[in-house]
Amino acid sequence: MSKRAKWSKGDSDESKNLPIYQHKAKLQQAVKDNSFLVVTGETGSGKTTQLPQYLHQAGFWNNGKIGITQPRRVAAITVAQRVSQEMHCSLGREVGYQVRFDDCTTQDTVVKYMTDGCLLREILADPVLSQYSVVILDEAHERSLNTDILLGLLKQTLSSPDKASKGRSVPLKVVVMSATLETDKLSVFLGGCPVFTIPGRTFPVTSKFGCAIGPKDTESSVYVKEVVKVTLDIHTSEMAGDILVFLTGQSEIEKACDMLYEKAESIDYRYDVQDRKVEGMLILPLYGSMPTDQQKQIFQPPPPGIRKCVVATNIAATSLTINGIKYIVDSGFVKQLNHNSRVGMDILEVVPISKSEALQRAGRAGRTSAGKCFRIYSQAFWEKCMPEYTVPEIQRTSLTAVILTLKCLGVHDVIRFPYLDRPEERFILEALKRLYQCDAIDRRGKVTRLGELMVEFPLPPGLTRALLQAASLGVEDLLLPVAAMLSVENIFIRPGHPEKQKEADQKHRQLGVQAGSCNDFTMLLSVFEKCKASDAPSAWCKDNYIHWRALKSAFSVETQLREILLRLQQKRDFPMEKFDGNKSELFRRCLCAGYFTNVARRSVGKVFCTMDGHGSMVHIHPSSTLFDQEPQLDWVIFHDLLVTSRIYIRTVCPIRYDWVKDLLPKLHEVDVYELSSVAREEVTDEEVAKWETKEAAKRQTEGSAEDAF
Ligand code: CDP
Ligand code: MG
Fold first, then answer.
1. Global pTM?
2. How far is the CA of 364 from the centre of ligand 2 (A)?
3. ipTM beyond 0.90?
4. pLDDT reading at 630 higher than 70
5. In this protein, which residues make up the domain named Helicase ATP-binding (predicted)?
């Protein structure tokens, strides 16, 4: 018997009950008949888990893999787990997943869940996706940056028959799945392709506004406390049924869960057990970086008499459906990456959700019976602070990485690329400017050799540039661990208890002292190396208030980055340079090569001023090892910014002005007008020569760079 027969079982009873099941044959046929298909249906109707299985049963895997993209890594992993169970195979075999730095697939994998970022990387290596028979872009309504770019790329490839058939035996099928929103727009964008609607059953949800959050409240302690209060009210006064709480991020969720544990313990259940049939509460957090074994619990029904309460990020709004939810607590906020024009960078911010998002959240309570949604914000907040729709990511974040990808794929005219929603031209120009500053593209807008190397790393451009600088000087061992540590969740534990907090701070300070030259980057390197060298690494972490799980991922990420680098180094013409000097200086100089755009100079007292043209006034974050040593610092570079009432710089390193002197003029030399013409069309050599002469003259009249500041 063939190996595959083992898992080619039919659909289970549970999956036969999903709304999508009625449409199985028609869906299989529709994918066969069309190169593009839009599929829409209520969240929870079975699109993500079932459609790939239907296509598998219809034999699509004979012509290549069935790939399904997700904007969120947790969704890719948990759904792959679920589907592998439904298909009776072990995860990573026939059904697998791939997310950044975690590839759980094998030669046998034919149903592959992955993040949209991973598929974009695959397109770089194989533009016609010759390994796939079908690609499903899931959660298109989320409008993530990578999904939007994939839509444009696949539209471009498939609408040009020469390109589409090159390197493929049968044409690729593309299915775009979305939870009801904007399907007409998608269909028009994809050349008027058919829209397949899965009729859903939903039950009414009554929504109630609260009064705790008005138009002026954005402090997280306010909404965390209120969310806890409302959840406990529901638990003590409403009938049986599980609760889903929407909060913003890991730390707020953990804080809320701690408060809930504490308060739920002291509830006296003796009086109304009879009425409500609820005797206790099972509190479960759900956020992106949680270990997957803990995530599994979310989907299991609670023990009899116990109420399940899931405290989640926006991931539970559409990506993951939890059965049995009857009550929603909506904080009204979401953590979102936005381009902040005040500081000229992307910043993770807590912002009010949109009205459509609020309706989606409420809808999660009405899947199997009527439900209730408790909003902690007032009607005035709804009217004054919440936009109608969420702005697509492509219109609010930095485009640097995707523009480099597009350029590497031969899309020269990045302004007229088919975007579903066009980003503002200034964002595109900003990205080009940044790429030029990192030496990833030249004056003509063409990708440089360095740019071709940079695109291979799944890291932010500045960090990649620093890493490649280190590699070219033969000191990659200094930068690889740092890049890995900056790619995983926060490694420093800061306990809630004040005594423990003091102890943790002290331990961390000690680690800083042991690291020798004191800056946050060497601190990361030192923690990485010390833990790696330890005989009992997990105990070492516990002792030093370091997250062992995060460090374990950092070890794995470092290995993967090293593999990418080795592969590139083995190719010909990997740039190499010579350098004399001490290692600490070398390390910081390499950082400067990537982070010179994030440079700040002491202004007055403890205030620094950024030098990228925005001139923002910034402070060193208290978590930095340099926090207490500010008086000795004049110039620093930093990894990122945190904006609250003040702007803080995090992961900071002191540098000497000399090291960035020659790089800083680059921040000001690119004329946006010139970039715009570069972006639109080929520019002649003559024109480039003209710009260069103009700039040289400008620099001469301005005198030295230091004077210019
Ligand atoms: O994609 P769509 O929102 O249409 O639905 P789905 O994610 O395929 O979910 C179908 C069903 O599978 C729901 O009842 C989910 O609760 C269930 N599911 C699960 O139990 N465990 C998972 N890891 C994923 C989905
Ligand atoms: Mg889905």
1. 0.89
2. 13
3. yes
4. no
5. 28-199
